Amino acid sequence: MKRIKTLNTRNLKDTMKKGGCGECQTSCQSACKTSCTVGNQSCENK
Amino acid sequence: MIHQYKNNGYNIVLDVNSGMIHVVDDVAYDIIDLFDKLGNPKTHMISEEDKETIVTELLKKYNKPEYTELFEIKPGDLNGMKAAIQESISEVEQLIKDGALFTEDIYENYINEFKNRETVVKALCLHIAHDCNLACRYCFAEEGEYHGRRELMSYEVGKKALDFLIASSGSRRNLEVDFFGGEPLMNFEVVKELVKYGREQEKLHNKKFRFTITTNGVLLDDEVAEFINKEMSNVVLSIDGRKEVNDLMRPSRNGKGSYDLILPKFIKLAESRNQTNYYVRGTFTRNNLDFAEDVKHFAELGFKQISIEPVVSLPEEPYSIREEDIPQIYEEYDKLAKYMLEKKKEGKGFNFFHFMIDLTGGPCVAKRLSGCGSGTEYLAVTPWGDLYPCHQFVGETDYLMGNVFEGVKRTDLVEEFKQCNVYSKNQCKNCFARFYCSGGCSANSNKFHGQINDTYEIGCELQRKRVECAIMLKAAEAVMSF
Predict the structure, then answer these.
(1) Is the pLDDT of residue A40 over 80?
(2) Chain A partners of B176 at a C-beta cutoff of 8 Å?
(3) Residues near B288 by Cβ (< 8 Å), separated by ≥ 6?
(4) In the beta sheet, which residues pair with residue B251?
(5) Which residues contact B98 (CB under 8 A, 6 or more apart)?
(6) How confident is the model at residue B403, as a pLDDT?
């Protein structure tokens, strides 16, 4: 596309098929402890 | 639902429900905006007549000499400009057809089903010491005491906690245990013994413990560092930034600042971990709304994993963040994002926890929308073995869930936390950031509204800004590598 660059290749909708295994880290175990930050976490089931 | 914004010279369009992020030029930016206004509410496509309206409106706006370069046309070439706008309209239509723009939220039933599944406990926050050797003014744990008494967790209680975790974790293999306080190093011998016990047990039960620790560094020495480096998959090092900032809020019990004592130890520990799997983690308050300077301070000291987070405290505290501080905080986040880009270009990049976002292998939608797991998958354990939904609820007896000896007794609380997610909070329904914060922190909601199904509005406003900055950084990095 000429005027549009899409940054990501992974559509959230597609993660419904394989997602929800629960093996990923609990969000508050990383650094925050005072907010809820999940967007930066990694999937353990790629 | 889309969210369009401009930041640091980038035009960004986030398609909220698919998570797709598009960096667009001014023309596409305007066209997408007009699609949002004119499009069919269901299909989001527009009629031929509306396409003509878009062309006419944009010709009016862009038919000026300064825009010829944008359209790659000769001055006055109106037909060329018209063709370019039409081409851009087709591109937008293609994105809609591809499910990458104006997508619907199809997740509510899926998340409700997901939340209703049988949950297991996968993470514990072990309050190994309800005591602290600092007296930080903003401490939600009230200098380690959590509205209760000073106490250190015994090995017996800790062991029971690990047994409880293994027994409650079903088929989940990765188990997380955070040694938290107060100050966990005040009970270091028990930490060591529990790690040893955990390593024995994981083999017997086919589990893998991931231990982490949060420390203020006062008792950090070479022996402790060696142990941490061997056993802890992550370590959070608490320090607020510049000396004057840190020492104002993080004094020792005799009133002396802690910066000079802890900083050299943190520098050494970060290096010994090869600048990975740790965070220097600070809290900013109303006293240092210029917190980007504190992040810079850490970066200049060579730290590569940095987190500085807003204090969460009630309005009566003089250091609390107020609504009127938000514009300044936004400016600081923008300033910080630009600084990070500069540093990256110089080959001296670093991570800022709240700007980290994974666009390729990030969490699945179930994780993104179902909440942090407090009260269900994640529990906090007090030194005497009581269970609470998370570390921030400790000491609030209404939320006492049971103990590690008898397990979870308050199944009603488990149910309440289970039902708490993005769709149970009205404020989240129209928020573009809901896929990045999972509906926010239940403890913050409880602190400000006395119930878990609400939101802490200042926290939400800051979260939205951070998501915008994080995406801008990704856009800038992508453009740099195109």
Answers:
(1) no
(2) 25-26, 29
(3) B240, B241, B242, B245, B294
(4) B257
(5) none
(6) 98
The band of A46, judged by pLDDT with boundaries at 50, 70 and 90, is low
List, in sequence order, every residue forming a beta bridge with B2; answer none if it has no partner: B15
Going by DSSP bridges, is the β-strand pair B278-284/B305-310 parallel, antiparallel, or unpaired? parallel
In this prediction the ipTM stands at 0.93
Q: Which of A31, A39, A44 sits opposite B281 (nearest CB)?
A: A31
- CA-CA distance, B218 to B173, in Å (whole number)? 34
> What is the per-residue pLDDT across B435-445, written as a single tens digit (0 to 9) for each?
998 889 999 99
On whether any CB of chain A is under 8 Å from the CB of B125, the answer is yes
Residues 6 or more apart from B259 whose CB is under 8 A from it? Answer: B239, B243, B246, B247, B250
By the CB < 8 Å criterion, does B18 face chain A? Answer: yes
Residue B338 has pLDDT above 90, yes or no: yes
What's the CA gap between B251 and B143, in Å, rounded? 11
Report the pLDDT averaged over residues B149-172: 96
Report the share of chain B in percent with pLDDT over 70.
Answer: 100
Largest Cα–Cα separation, chain B: 83
Nearest in space to B337 (alpha carbons), one of B369, B299, B372: B299
Query: Chain B 413-442, CB below 8 Å of chain A: which residues?
Result: 435-441
Is A35 close to B444, i.e. CB distance below 8 A? yes
> For B62-75, what is the HEC assignment?
HCCHHHHHHHCCCC
Judge: A34–B122 Cβ closer than 8 Å, yes or no.
no
What residues in chain A have their Cβ under 8 A from chain B's Cβ atoms? 1-13, 15-16, 18-20, 22-46
* A32 contacts on B by Cβ (under 8 Å): 307, 309, 353
Q: Which is nearest to A34 in space by CA: B388, B397, B442?
A: B442
> Is any Cβ of chain A less than 8 angstroms from the Cβ of B365?
yes
pLDDT tens readout for residues B63-84: 998 998 889 888 889 999 999 9
Interchain proximity B362–A39, CB inside 8 Å = yes
Query: Are the Cβ atoms of B435 and A11 closer than 8 angstroms?
Result: no
Alpha-carbon B45 to chain mean position:
35
Task: Confirm or reject contact between B354 and chain A (CB < 8 A).
Answer: yes
- The reported pTM is 0.95
In chain A, residues with a C-beta closer than 8 Å to the C-beta of B365 are 12-13, 15-16, 19
- B129 three-class SS: strand
